[in-house]
């Protein structure tokens, strides 16, 4: 079972998980744009590099901050594509808590609205 909505890979593809099917068409478009934003910014390759160079171990807080920035930048790409409404809907229907690597729903909604 693929217990995620969608994710991008270091080789530039997007994988959708089991939860992707439950989204509306607008939410699907926004989620795909978010993942495309990660690909356009080479985010997965950067994260892989941070892991391979062990930076994630000796500069954990820096890596966490950069990952949160990457998430907000991917949301900004969604907004640029005119799909902010779909991302807002997704975030409201599927709230996400803040973690070391991800901003929470409130922060993401504020960035989308700003």
Automatic annotation (TrEMBL):
Binds 1 zinc ion per subunit. It holds the Pfam family Peptidase_M48. InterPro entries: Peptidase_M48. Keywords: Hydrolase, Metal-binding, Metalloprotease, Protease, Zinc. Its cofactor is Zn(2+). Residues 23-56 form the Peptidase M48 domain. Belongs to the peptidase M48 family. This is Peptidase M48-like protein.
